[in-house]
Amino acid sequence: MHAVTSGAEDRMKKTMASLKEGFAALRTGRASAALFDRIRVDYYGDKSPLSQVANISIPEARLIVIQPWDKNMIAEIEKAIRSSELSLNPSNDGKVIRIAIPPLTEERRREIVKLAKNQAEQSRVAVRNIRRDGNDELKKLLKAGDLTEDEESRAGEELQKLTDSYITKINQVLEEKEKEITEV
């Protein structure tokens, strides 16, 4: 594999990882600890990820239990969850926070699917831009005499195959996420 295509593949992997991370934060009708990956809690002056100040468990399909390691953090954690874009309503008993995940309305499901499709399209565009950058780099190397026309052509074909495979992966991940969102 040529160095240009290898660099492009690294960038495409990062695009894919970013898409999966974005999808994990999309709320479905199912409880998931990944929903809280982006929530930061004010922990004695520092903004810390929720997972670093509490244990998050899913005892049932539509219930999340958050147990802070420091009981004094309950109010702070509740505040962070309420102010997030998740639209969840936490309640606590002084020891743990319970969050019931309400089923999504059909309208909300459509909105979330639309968001997922938008994120997937942004990822496809990013992958195509990486391909374009790689092709530009190959042309520069050819012009500078560092590559023969055959090598440039082969590397260009590798880059196209790589692009096609990542576009297919993005479509598969989107399809899985759509099924997860629309299942009742």
Which SSEs are present, and which pair or pack?
Elements lengths: L2 H22 L15 E4 L2 E4 L4 E7 L2 E6 L5 H9 L8 E2 L4 E4 L5 H39 L4 H34 L2
Helix pairs in contact: 1-3, 1-4, 3-4
Can you walk me through this structure?
This protein has 184 residues and is α+β, with helices and mostly antiparallel strands. Helix content is 57%, strand content 15%. It has a four-stranded antiparallel β-sheet, with helices on one face. A hairpin with a 4-residue loop joins β5 (91-92) and β6. The protein is elongated. 24% of the residues are buried. The mean pLDDT is 88.
For the largest sheet, list the strands in their spatial order: 3-4-6-5
Biggest sheet record: 4 strands, antiparallel
Kindly report the average pLDDT value: 88
CA radius of gyration is 22 Å
Distance between the termini: 45 Å
- Low-confidence runs (pLDDT<50, min 5 residues)? none
Proportion of residues in extended strands: 5-15%
Question: What form results from the Cα inertia axes?
Answer: elongated
Number of strands: 6
The proportion of residues forming helix, as a percent range, comes to: 55-70%
Give the gist of this structure:
By secondary structure, the protein is an alpha+beta fold. It has helices at about 5-25, 75-80, 105-145, 150-180; strands at about 40-45, 45-50, 55-60, 65-70, 90, 95-100.
Main attributes?
184 residues; alpha+beta; four-stranded antiparallel β-sheet; 57% helix; single chain; two-stranded antiparallel ribbon
